[in-house]
Specification:
With 65 residues, this protein is mainly alpha-helical. Helices cover 51% and strands 6% of the residues. It has one domain (12-64). The protein has four helices and two strands; from the N terminus they run αααββα. A two-stranded parallel sheet has the order 1-2. Helix 1 (12-19) packs antiparallel against helix 2 (24-35). It is globular.
Length: 65
């Protein structure tokens, strides 16, 4: 469970890798890489635009904590 969101799960190994980041931005990027597929990240933005779909807001909220 991540960020108090029961629907967002992360492996212990991925969590430890993200937690080892020295900057909050790096940690957020590592979590995004672990929680979204590369395909989803390349065709989406956080809030969505005319050309790109929005990322799952529950996962984004969990990353924000």
């Amino acid at each position: 469970m991540l960020g108090g969101c029961g629907g967002v799960r992360l492996s212990s190994q991925d969590f430890q890798f993200a937690k080892a980041a020295h900057k909050p931005t790096t940690m957020a990027l590592r979590l995004a890489d672990a929680l979204f597929s590369k395909e989803t990240l390349t065709r989406s933005t956080v809030h969505g635009t005319k050309d790109y779909a929005p990322l799952d807001q529950q996962i984004i909220a969990a990353i924000k904590g």
